[in-house]
Amino acid sequence: MSFNSDFIWGAATSSYQIEGAYKEDGKSLSIWDVMCEKPGAVFDSHTGKIACDHYHLYKEDVQLMKDIGLQAYRFSISWPRIFPSGTGKINSKGMDFYKKLCDNLLENNITPFATLFHWDLPYELYTKGGFLNRDSTDWFAEYAATVTKELGDRVQHYFTINEPQCIQYLGYGSGEHAPGLKTGLRDLLLIGHHLLLSHGKAVQAIRANGSSSVQVGWAPTCSGLYPATEKAEDIAATEMAQFDVTTEYNGTEFNSFGLTYFNDPVYLGKYPDKMFSLFGEYMPKIEQEDMKIISQKVDYHGHNVYNGVAIKSDGKGGYLYCKRDIGYPHTAMNWPVTPECVRWLPKNIAKRYGVPIYITENGLSNQDWVALDGKVHDSTRIDFLHRYFIQMKKAIEEGTPIKGYFQWSLLDNFEWSNGYKERFGLIYVDYETQKRTLKDSALWYSDVIKSNGDTL
Ligand code: GCO
Q1: What CATH fold (topology level) applies to the domain 8-451?
Q2: Is the separation of the CB atoms in 263 and 271 below 8 Å?
Q3: Contact 376, 421 (CB under 8 A)
Q4: Rounded CA gap, 206 and 202, in Å?
Q5: Strand, coil or helix: what is 30?
Q6: In this predicted model, what pLDDT tens digit does every residue of 317-331 receive, in sequence order?
Q7: Which residue puts its alpha carbon closest to atom 4 of ligand 1?
Q8: Nearest CA to 54 among 84, 91, 23, 13?
Q9: Catalytic amino acids?
Q10: Are 190 and 284 contacting, i.e. CB atoms less than 8 angstroms apart?
């Protein structure tokens, strides 16, 4: 068995990272617009004011997607374009942009997958407490209801929230992301709970307001653990590690990057028991209906996965994280290249939660430039994707229900605190001229799509 005939090959982006037009047509500022003004917050003081100017160039970008042969496109909607004040009066001009984008995608046979929230919270809502405020769950539900009603039949696939882990920890723990705060454990756990509740309320809102066949899930991330060998004890140790809750991650005191902390509530209707034993009195107050709302049935699970760590058994019924080899392969952003994560993580997700899965992000930052012949020869990206696709194919052959794959990213774009330093795109963007060039990897991906993976 290979990829199913209905397997979906796509690419992904997010609003703040590509759109630009930061205060056009009634859009208000998001927390990222404000973060970019903070000295030292973003590499070389880059901002998303113009980014890839996708707001104006979206038709050209859709044509490029068509040239590559993408079957689906995952993009996100900018909340401050729709609701400049965060709630209340809709800004129709902002909404029109997404209607036109979706119409254009559909005319070109590209299925839109819309993410409602990829981190660009309206600044005005931040001043009201953002996700620290329980009201945020209702603000988000109102926004979700409005967008799905407005987009109607155009969009059948939604993701509520992208990477709650990063919103919570990078935004409010390490402060590396907007709003750039360093709060304590109690606040982090409270934000986590409000993100979960926001997701649940948005699922309800989408079902109540979207088209009759609308489908919805969310798109978290986590490290994808894989066994050091295929010995049964290492496979069992990997599962144990993947499902575990720990306090520490990369030297932090709080690990929001595990799988089960954010996903057990959504799929099993409860936090892992270990959350209570580890964090006890710091856990948020859980109101009576909360877990029921959080665990609304979803249609699929989206997962952003880039890398992971090899795990082995400690020989005593526990697990050990393996040290990386000296000189291990890593990307321009220093992320390790670990293709096995796209085989084992989805397998373990499906095992624990029994849900169909979309890989909603995967890819790498590479040192790309336009060569003397005018092309972009990103052979490293081709090799990276090839290795990851082989592992994804293995997972599917083993029966893991992966329904589609979205490469991150369609375009080189604004990589948060790294600004434009990192290039993740299948398409090279010259930020001075906004000229786009299909990289070699885009052409290679195009062949993979055409053959539905048979060329791998
Ligand atoms: C994330 C975000 C993307 C990033 C990408 C590369 O995973 O952090 O969803 O916006 O750009 O992952 O870091």
Answers
A1: TIM Barrel (3.20.20)
A2: no
A3: no
A4: 6
A5: strand
A6: 999 999 999 999 999
A7: 415
A8: 13
A9: 163, 361
A10: yes
Q: How far is the CA of 150 from the centre of ligand 1 (A)?
A: 27
| Residue whose CA is at the smallest distance from ligand 1 atom 5 | 408
Comparing C-alpha atoms, which of 326, 345, 329, 309 is closest to residue 384?
Answer: 329
- Decide if pLDDT at 388 tops 90: yes
pLDDT at 135 over 90: yes
Cβ pair 135, 128 in contact under 8 A: yes
Q: Which residues contact 315 (CB under 8 A, 6 or more apart)?
A: 233
Reported confidence tier of residue 68, pLDDT bands at 50, 70, 90: very high
Q: How confident is the model at residue 73 (pLDDT cuts 50, 70, 90)?
A: very high
Beta-carbon contacts of residue 178 (< 8 Å; ≥ 6 apart): 30, 31, 32, 34, 35, 119, 121, 171
CB 14 near ligand 1, within 6 Å: yes
Q: Is 304 a pocket residue for ligand 1 (Cβ < 6 Å)? A: yes
Residue 339: is it exposed, middle or buried by C-beta count within 10 angstroms (0-12/13-18/19+)?
buried
Domain residue extents for the chain: 8-451
Name the strand (E) or helix (H) holding 430. Answer: strand 427-430
Tokens of 204: 């309800």
Cβ of 61 less than 6 Å from ligand 1? no
C-alpha 384 – ligand 1 centre gap (Å): 17
What value does the mean pLDDT take over residues 263-290?
Answer: 96
Is 221 in contact with 299 (CB distance < 8 Å)?
A: no
